[in-house]
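Quick one, T. Sequence first:
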Amino acid sequence: MYTNKREKGEGKMKLDKTLMNSLGIEMVKLEKGKVIATMPVDDRTRQPFGLLHGGASVALAETVASIGAYELVDQATEAVVGLEINANHIRAKRDGLVTATGTVLHQGKTTMVWEIKIADEDGNLVCISRCTIAIIKLKR
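Structure tokens:
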């Protein structure tokens, strides 16, 4: 489980009881402006015809964008939520593992835009997504 804490101990994102856990999404790398995560292609993430479900890819993409965006805000006073997402499903995948790499394209005061590329084990593009994140003020 990934739990983020700033040095001051201000913000925290608990991910153990989320969709991320249900789909088997695991964080691989987290740095300012870049996130890498993996997700298995198994019974949890397949559609009825045995292929990776497009919704699972979108969930992976938004997860990567959200976690990456959270790293870039003041966690003591702000949170992030998905505002808009789109995805193009390029290649079918039946099993194995997919890896999502998200990079920030725009970082503003109230929104961020992230690009997320999801690839198979051979580096073939499975899905490309763009996600807009809203930055909201926490109510205290």
